[in-house]
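Lab notebook page, bench 4
Experiment: in silico fold of construct C2
Operator: M.H.
Input chain length: 119 residues
Purpose: comparison with the prior construct
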Amino acid sequence: MTELDVQALQRRLVAFAAARDWGQYHTPKNLASALSVEAAELMEIFQWLTPEQSARGMEDPGTAPRVADEVADVLAYLLQFCEVLGIDVLAALAAKIERNEGRFPVPEPTDPAFRHSSE
């Protein structure tokens, strides 16, 4: 099996759509809508489960492949969306994580029991 990377997967998705003449439908609006629908389908799998049941979802042989398929659908539409708009998805994620690290710093422990003995 060849190593998978985001750019290779995006190229496969573009080729897949082009071979079927679907590119004309791959507008940002349509791709964002499709992404939302697929995310809702993923959410539907877990809709009525307790938190404990949802945490064990991948242990269920009937549920695990459905979850994996919906995750793949969400990712496929997200990658296609980013391709159409020229967004480097990994760079965007790295930048967002960096912004969040600045916005939400690790809190200092307030309980003296958490302080290091060397302080």
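Observations: The chain is about 65% helix and 0% strand. Residues 24 and 77 are 15 Å apart (CA to CA).
Next step: discuss at group meeting.
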